[in-house]
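Supplementary Methods S3. Input chains for the assembly prediction are listed below.
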Amino acid sequence: MKEMTIAQLLEKYPFVTEFFQQNRLNITGFEQLTFADYLQQLDEDELEEKAIELQKLPEELALYIEQMTAFLGLNEDSGVHSLTILPGKDKNAVPEKFTKLTIFPSQVVAIVGPTGSGKSRLLADIEWAAQNDTPTGRSILINDALPDAKWRYSPNNKLVAQLSQNMNFVIDLSVKEFLQLHAQSRMAENIKEISGKILAAANRLAGEPFSADTPVTSLSGGQSRALMIADTAILSASPIVLIDEIENAGIDRRKALEVLLSQDKIVLMATHDPLLALMADRRIVIRNGGIHAVLETTQEEKALLQKMNSLDTIMQSARRELREGKTLHTKDFLSDFRL
Amino acid sequence: MNLVIFSGPPSSGKTSVILKVIESFKKRAVAVGVVKFDCLYTDDDKLYEKAGIPVKKGLSGALCPDHFFASNIEDVVKWGNKAGLDLLITESAGLCNRCSPYLTGVKGVCIIDNLSGINTPKKIGPMLKSADMVAITKGDIVSQAEREVFASRVSAVNPKAMVMHVNGLSGQGAYELSTMLYDEKQSLSSVQGMKLRFPMPSAMCSYCLGETRIGESYQMGNTKKMVWEEKEK
Ligand SMILES: Nc1nc2c(ncn2[C@@H]2O[C@H](COP(=O)(O)OP(=O)(O)OP(=O)(O)O)[C@@H](O)[C@H]2O)c(=O)[nH]1
Ligand SMILES: [Mg+2]
Ligand SMILES: [Zn+2]
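Predicted structure tokens for the full assembly:
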């Protein structure tokens, strides 16, 4: 690598552009030099001006190339085929009441329990790939084995992506530019195609459609959530997605889950809403900082869920009609009242 | 005693993260104290006090807080040892993007927040570039995409650093960060003779020394002029 010119580096590792840009190194016109020679010819005053330290940069560039190469290689092989949680203890050091919980891609597990009961801790255990070295004493296995250290230490390989109620877009870009930016950071090759795919998926989830030119900050609540979910499903590097409630407005929640599952994500969903909790086939009950139980959703619950869904439909249409200034009539709802 | 140097832009979540980190040390019976460096004003000492943490503060006033840090850190370390601390944490407001307080051989942590915008990693210089660990906060209020873009830019600026997401409110990730900070075997009695990781500019001009009058003839020392392109032909 040391002998390569900047032009050769750019050719072989296109992502090094990002390294030069983020480190404020203007290489334009110097492509025929090696990186070391490029640094050599920089003016000393300019280096001090820009707070650039020469000695470490070649080493950092080598490390960056190594990390990015490993990261890009990761996409093809060494995926996550299962996540296993082994029990630890709750806040009072009482052992957790389950033996082993394994979740596979395209499965949803709900997390229920009072606020502050230990959801963050469970999530942090997964994110950190705990090895009996966190306060809960839980252990995490990936593909039935000890997790690779990269899940802990490497910035681009994070196990968990998060979607929560409070999330907003803060960046001032159009939907299209935003998706391109994310795709670039993921070193995706077919950026246009991916952005198009995400936009289409988001529009299937959102009640009101939006275009590629809409600024992300002016999307409605439902549209924002739809875009975040579609983007996380399709572009996020993380194999596990944690959802912290999806509000029941402006978005089709069942389809939202389907989008994530169709991309082979492992989905954990913290919720207080029975309609969401029962959509999952299993649920983790958290109490006093520990996993109190892992329950399967029963047939009876699935049947109840259907009835609750029709109740929900009634509520939603009543809400809509009232908002539109209409008067409600029993006959319009009669067909729904077969509870 | 162990020493860890925290730095980061204003309001990035330094105090919140340090408080959560200390919470997890308390359970392990590690005695932690904090010294806060700021420029004009800080209330952070009250927050630490309220949490029962021994704390001192230093205000640099007219000086760059990082320069002030360098001239006071030896005394700070003396204080920590005298107070019987196992771990001394310094919190510096990274006001000057040109300087950074990190010392070679002492762990340096940069706290930076997702809300500050995706160009921040590029802007803040040595404070980020020469840190050992970077904790990114406020991930709970931005989209996953922005978290990922932000983290990837952080690692382009500082590929050597370990990058973590820590939430200053819920404390998620703070325990994990704490495990990287304390080493029972390490014992630091003095920082005498240690080196700053990144040289600070001397930056002395006549205005540093109290000059108030505007005009070429009053300017001495290290002055610098903006470049103006000639418009007329
Ligand atoms: N949503 C959210 N808010 C946070 C998080 N971390 C910190 N905050 C909030 O951000 C604000 C600033 O946090 P501080 O911890 O005081 O920041 P600081 O870096 O110590 O600030 P200075 O010392 O004044 O430079 C506070 O209102 C915190 O509650 C986080 O992870 N998420
Ligand atoms: Mg503070
Ligand atoms: Zn300075």
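The mean pLDDT of chain A is 89. The pocket of zinc ion (ligand 3) is lined by residues B 64, 66-67, 96, 98-99, 200 (CB under 6 Å).
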